[in-house]
Design a protein that fits this description.
Layout: E1 3-10, E2 14-23, E3 26-36, H1 42-57, E4 63-68, E5 79-80, H2 83-90, H3 100-113, E6 119-123, H4 133-136, H5 142-146, H6 156-166, E7 173-179, E8 183-189, E9 192-196, H7 217-225, H8 231-240, H9 243-248, H10 253-261, H11 265-289, E10 294-298, H12 299-304, H13 306-313, H14 325-330, E11 343-346, H15 351-360
Parallel strand pairs: 1-4, 4-6, 7-10, 10-11
Antiparallel strand pairs: 1-2, 2-3, 5-6, 7-8, 8-9
Helix pairs in contact: 6-15, 10-11, 11-13
Length: about 375
């Protein structure tokens, strides 16, 4: 039987979507889009998305999957959405205040607009829910750990796709570098996440387009003590005015690369700072994994910036990584030399397909054993 499944990915300023057809074991992307969210127009955007999805599929979707950034302690696998689930999700908004409110608002509107089809929430944190305690914990009092203040990790849907694309069994010791405007690295051992760079929120880890990444917490205390920033101003600083934007005035890596070609010193520093953070995380995860068999670069920067990849791997030949300079410059799928002990891949991610697969699984005629309860 043929099914059309819509994947929705609501961000703070964009609405991404993809429509897939599942038929006789095949998965076909029929179309995708990325719309800017204007003030108060998210309902109109949803109508545009649904109209486009129906045009491409020839009928309304049979199921809808929704990307939800944070599942907290409660959600560690995809879940079919009802009012009870929505109420539980609403309690998690403080964990991802930039991402969860718009995603939940869209989810409610989609439920109202398509009440007779199943809606499935898919969580970026779920892939990391089995992190070892030593990787999950921050060095804070145990009472805070018991309250859920610990590392959750994100970009889990991307990690799931990468694992599926690498085939079974996956490389035993694997690092996934998801490098985009939001960026994180994940250490994967025997197919399971054992550490990841983002923490309680998507603001942790390496520097990103506008997010600071990890900071000395004393910096925030200092700014509060000196009364130069309120809590709201610190939130804006960490999430919107730091990272590449803070260092260079520009959050776009492609624009920074163009500026650097013309000798722009701040742009060069921003690129080097970003790549240096990636390199340090690769080294840390090689230690955590006890070596490395495969490194995957994915997402916008990871897939499209040979310079960032080269800078991130510079000086790592001691680890068994041998970069093929020409293959890297050409954007080949494998950018390591044949003699390299570590295989380095460039692999386009597809989070929407992971979402669509999860939504497809709730349909009555889904393959046996795949249904979500």
């Amino acid at each position: 039987m043929t099914h059309a499944v819509l994947a929705l990915n609501a961000g703070s300023s964009t609405l991404k979507f993809s429509i897939f057809r599942f038929h006789a074991g095949t998965e076909t992307e029929l179309g995708a889009g990325n719309l800017e969210v204007n003030d108060g127009n998210d309902a109109a955007l949803l109508e545009r998305v649904l109209a486009e999805a129906e045009r491409l599929a020839g009928a309304p979707p049979d199921a809808v999957g929704h990307r939800i950034v944070h599942g907290g302690e409660q959600f560690t696998a995809p879940v079919r959405v009802d009012e009870h689930v929505l109420a539980r999700l609403a309690t998690l908004s403080d964990l991802a205040p930039l991402h969860l409110p718009p995603a939940l608002a869209l989810l409610r509107k989609a439920l109202e607009r398509l009440p007779r089809v199943p809606h499935v929430a898919c969580f970026d944190t779920a892939f990391h829910h089995g992190l070892p305690e030593v990787a999950r914990r921050f060095a804070l009092p145990s009472a805070l750990y018991e309250r859920g203040i610990h590392r959750y990790g994100f970009h889990g849907l991307s990690c799931e796709y990468v694992l599926s694309a690498l085939g079974s069994p996956p490389p035993r010791r694997l690092i996934i570098a998801h490098l985009g405007s939001g960026a994180s690295l994940t250490a994967v051992l025997d197919g399971r996440s054992i550490d990841t760079s983002m923490g309680l929120t998507p603001a942790g880890g390496i520097a990103m387009g506008t997010r600071s990444g990890d900071l000395d917490p004393g910096i925030l205390l200092h700014l509060l003590r000196e009364r130069t920033h309120t809590v709201d101003e610190l939130t804006e600083l960490i999430h919107h005015d730091s990272g590449l934007k803070g260092v260079t005035g520009d959050s776009s890596m492609s624009k920074l690369l163009a500026r650097a070609e013309h000798g722009d010193a701040p742009a060069k520093m921003g690129i080097e700072l970003f790549a240096y953070g990636v390199k340090k995380q690769i080294g840390a995860y090689m230690a955590a994994l006890g070596g490395l068999d495969c490194l995957v670069f994915t997402a916008g920067i990871g897939e499209h910036s040979p310079l960032v990849r080269a800078l991130a791997l510079e000086g790592l030949s001691w680890s068994g990584i041998e970069l093929d300079v020409e293959a890297n410059h050409a954007g080949a799928s494998v950018i390591s030399r044949k003699s390299s002990r570590v295989v380095v891949r460039v692999l386009p991610t597809n989070e929407d397909l992971v979402i669509a697969r999860a939504a497809r699984a709730v349909l009555p005629t889904a393959p046996h054993g795949s249904a979500i309860r």
